[in-house]
Amino acid sequence: MRGMRYRLLDIAVCLGLVAFIVHIAWFAVGDSDFWWHVKAGEVMWHARDLIRIDPFAWTRTGLPYVATHEWLAQMLFWATYTLGGPSGIVLLRITVSLGIAALLLGIDSRRLWPNALLVAGAFVVMRQGLIERPQLFSNLLFAAVLAIVLRILHRSGGDRTRLFWLLLGLQVLWVNLHGGAAILTPLLLGCVLVQDGVDAWRGTRPWRDMKTTGLWCGALALALLLSPNHVHTLTYVYALLTDRTAEFIQEWSPHPWPQYLSQLGPLWIIALAALVATHERVIALAAMLLGIGLLSRMGARHEALLLITAVGCTFAALRHAPHWHRALGWLRARPLYSWGITAAVAAAIVVINAPYRAFLLRENLAGMHAFARPQTAVDVIEAENITGRIFNTYNVGGYLLLRDHPVFVDGRNVDYGEPFLKRTLEARYDAEAFRSLEREYGFTVLLLELTDAMVKEGEFAFLERMPDWRMVFVDDWAAVYVKQKPEHAKVITERGFAVLTPRLLHGFAAIEELPSAQLPALEAELRRAADADPRGIGALLTLGRLLRGMGRLAETHGALEEAMKRAPYRYEAYALAASVAALEENWQRSADLYEKTLALTRYLPVSPPARQLAIVFERAGRYRLAEKYRKMAQDTGM
Question: pTM score, two decimals?
Fold first, then answer.
């Protein structure tokens, strides 16, 4: 009977873990680099060879293509996307994620409870490692290598041979999927080598184990050359470490210490406590943990590797910790305690994950679809037959080349080098730097990524003062400008904007500062922008603010209702509609909309208009809420 209760608990936590991982990995395909990986896979499939000369960037015509180390991952992405579309990529992501979890649980399969709870907690933080890039495969293979190395750690002599050969096979696969990332295999085995040396010196292990492990470390290092990329696998790693382009890329920089510790600190504490609780092979486990920990401080993209290492080393250490086994036995014998702990941890994980889930819903990223930020902008470029050399910002290059447009720059930072990337990034804020690039490269079309942060910081704001450039398309995510040239006369006449700017669209320029004579033109341009962009709500929100300011309250409802329909989890349209309803003295509707707004801003750094809320809730008869926000208004002065 007791054994049945134990199995039920194990089955329950494993099923819950599977469901949670599917939930975590169930988000849209939208990483900016994914698109050029898919296109590279397509090019190699048709050429039946690695890419040798850059086929993508018109700024690198005739120059060598450097990023060949990920060729097999790119082929897999292209095949999956071609056969299954975005759903295929999401299913691939889910499969890899479940594989990582299974490998970690396999390190100590006798204690699925509570190990599955720790794996679930790690996956809450591991989301960045699940995006559709070659490191998705690296994380899976790293987990597999770690699981094998931990088995080798506790075996001796001939019992290790089959595991060494398995490592070699995984190493060859890894070096073709993600190039120099496979250097982690001999490094992990090197930790076993150190432990073997210490044990041999103590007389608890034969010296031949150390010699054999050293030979296999060398073999695994040599296996880094077993790909069509040959020595370039290593030269690319050297370039990453020396050419300084990584400093321009956010994921290659470490997270600030407060953020790092808040997310990874609990796993560090658990792993270190596990090492203290055991005396088995502690040197190797500590070396793995500290080595990968150091790597995680070299770039945010490596944090997933630390999470895998921390969980794996924890399981390996506690597998040989008698005090831990006795504690688990005591808890398992008391179902109320074990099931209560399970429910509490599961609830905590759901609560911790809730802000991320809200983010996916808010940005329309939950599901099995694809979301490319510049998609509509590229549609317009093609529909209007806008020709000429395109200057594009860094993150939109991948999607642009997927659509067979030569790019100015894309996500291959090493290929472009530090001087080029530095000039390109400086041109976001410096008009003279932009003009210098324009004179040198002669581009006549601009495709610019837009985010609230970029627009607020004033990226490319100087274009508003350059009469020879005209914006012909803008949505929430991208803008298209064309040079005033004869070949662009038609699109400028039909689509050119005279008043609307990205700063107005994103709410960082005040409509009230515009001359009243320009307001009719702005209204017409906002309506045109909203019709041209079926996904975004920026034009609809700005139109609503304009109409509200002009006192045309009845006309705002259509724009705001359409915004709510397009983005039902964004709060802005509800907040604006609530303010309009208050002006109309429709207090019940205003209160309903404000309550919806408050629910949607639960995880956002948005300060509620407490004084306005107190008035609305008071007049709607919701006195408890009115008192709450009246007190908040007194405390904050808002």
Answer: 0.94
